[in-house]
Amino acid sequence: MRDINLKATEYFEAVARLGGVTRAAEELAVSPSAVSQQIRLLEGQLGVRLFRREKRRLVLTLDGDRLFQTTTQAFGALRNARSAIARQRDVRSLTIRVSPSFGVRWLGPRIAGFAAENPDWNIRIDATPDFTAFETEAIDLDVRYGLGGWAGLTVMPMMNDLAAPLCSTDYLARLRAVSDDPAAQLSAARLIDSVKMLYRWDLWLAANGVVVPDLGYPFRFDRSSMSIEMAKQGGGLALDSVMLCLPELMRGELVPFSTDYPVVEFQGYWLVCPPRHLNRRIVARFADWLAAACAAHEAQARAFLASLGCAFRPGRLTEMTRGGPQ
Known about the structure:
The protein is α/β, with parallel strands linked by helices. Helices cover 45% and strands 21% of the residues. It has helices spanning 6-18, 21-28, 32-46, 62-90, 100-107, 111-117, 169-178, 182-188, 201-207, 224-232, 246-251, 281-307, and strands at residues 51-54, 57-60, 92-98, 121-127, 141-145, 154-167, 191-194, 219-221, 237-241, 255-256, 263-273, 312-314. α1 (6-18) crosses α3 (32-46), α1 crosses α4 and α2 (21-28) packs across α3.
């Protein structure tokens, strides 16, 4: 790159893009003679003519056009980057990290409402299974799935999780054709293991006194969204989060496996950030909005499950796995 005269190249690009020396000089805030001098320097360096005159007009030569196609893209990208950086200094932003399934299935359909209430803010959602290292990453807050207790951080409970075996109506009909006994149905079911859930099949089966001979998991997914989709498509029985698939339940695309077994509830969703971050008004505003949205969603989920005849019981800490971001 040392042998490229960047100033002369910039002047050339301006002349070619604007169609003349005078207009290029105005944009560059220099004299026309300075522009012409740089064009001659560049032509001398390259050993080719870049322009030819036709009826008092400058027209690109073949070599000039080749150089222009490359330089105009490069300088255009630089101008765009410079503008974006300059705008970023003046724009207020909020950056949130969430687990992928929660981001897609819960936050994604709702975040437009928060954005409409805060139109002067740019909102970035970073959907990743990794928790934020706040000392090194420029993230305002996490919405985490887990058991809580992250040392040195403000940890605010947002929403309980409601875990239940779920499947499609067609798949449930197939299981009921095997037996009227839910325990026997479980032995015949293809169990879908959602490995990041805090409450998983082995714990659920033991807590409910169900013994499945030759227990195995034909499907194992590290994203709740994949487990839920597999169950919706009739692929098996998923023990997963009602909070992430309430719309499918309300549309009848998924149904609880059996009301004989209570829905397990536990605190699962948390807002997490360094204490100082809550001093930012937009972070505190988002925390309030999230708490209200989570409370409304949880109330709706409870009411719907209750209308189906489901009961609830609290999950015990000894039943939980450490799980991870969904």
